[in-house]
């Protein structure tokens, strides 16, 4: 199974600084078979960055949307439908705890978004913030999308900026893998260049999901190189 390094830029960067990030990353990046790098910029930059990625001919590198609409095209002011994103991105982050916390999204939204993504061929990256409530995501089992990635992102780690212990992450990864067999599972929450290495050893873990560490090329490239070397 491939490994993944995901960088979620959240609501950061300008159009120019996004392109500069890519130019600098391109110089540091050594693509490796078996390691897929995914960066999710703010939606307004997806189109221009997708052309920039093509120009740079970055291999094993894809863009992702940070969110998509739970609805298809229609009268939904402010929404961005999955098929509008598809020409510019390959993945869509869905159900991030910040979407739930600040935008009041529900599990039903999450499932509908995952279905919309799968329908147009976007690979969903489903955020799971609690390993004890997996049964609430039962409906995901009906969505036909073999590549779906599951991202364990415990909300306390995000909020308190302390990563969950390796041992605890290992336990939850096993639980998720039992519930959703054969899916790549990644961990995210307060990872940085000083603490990420031990997480790469977790049995069944397919990668890392970062935000803060992805904003600077230097830290993201450090993670990328180490993951490549660990393959
Ligand atoms: O979207 C990614 C997760 O919220 C992790 O963010 P973080 O790496 O800044 O803790």
From TrEMBL:
Coiled coil residues, start to end: none
Record organism: Desulforhopalus singaporensis
Keywords, alphabetical: Cytoplasm, Gluconeogenesis, Glycolysis, Isomerase
Pathway(s): Carbohydrate degradation; glycolysis; D-glyceraldehyde 3-phosphate from glycerone phosphate: step 1/1; Carbohydrate biosynthesis; gluconeogenesis
Major localisation: cytoplasm
Name the record gives this protein: Triosephosphate isomerase
Enzyme Commission (EC) number: 5.3.1.1
Top enzyme category: isomerase
GO CC field: cytosol
Subcellular location field: Cytoplasm
Subunit structure: Homodimer.
UniProt xrefs under InterPro entries: Aldolase_TIM, TIM_sf, Triosephosphate_isomerase
Keyword Isomerase set for record: yes
């Amino acid at each position: 199974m491939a490994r993944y390094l995901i960088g979620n830029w959240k609501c950061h960067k300008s159009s120019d600084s996004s392109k500069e990030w890519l130019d600098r990353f391109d110089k540091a990046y050594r693509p490796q078979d078996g390691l897929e790098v995914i960066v999710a910029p703010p939606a307004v930059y997806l189109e221009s960055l997708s052309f920039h990625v093509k120009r740079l001919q970055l291999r094993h590198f894809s863009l992702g949307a940070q969110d998509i609409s739970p609805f298809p095209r229609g009268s939904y002011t402010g929404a961005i439908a999955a098929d509008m994103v598809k020409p510019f991105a390959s993945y869509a982050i869905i159900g991030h705890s910040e979407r739930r916390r600040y935008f009041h999204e529900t599990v039903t939204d999450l499932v509908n978004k995952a279905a919309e993504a799968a329908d147009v061929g976007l690979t969903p990256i489903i955020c799971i913030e609690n390993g004890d409530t997996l049964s609430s995501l039962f409906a995901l089992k009906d969505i036909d999308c073999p590549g779906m990635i599951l991202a364990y992102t415990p909300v306390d780690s995000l909020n308190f900026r302390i990563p969950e212990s390796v041992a605890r992450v290992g336990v939850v990864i096993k639980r998720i893998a039992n519930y959703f067999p054969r899916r790549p599972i990644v961990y995210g929450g307060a990872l940085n260049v000083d603490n990420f290495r031990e997480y790469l050893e977790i049995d069944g873990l397919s990668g890392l999901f970062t935000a803060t560490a992805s904003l600077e090329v230097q830290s993201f490239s450090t993670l990328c190189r180490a993951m490549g070397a660990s393959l």
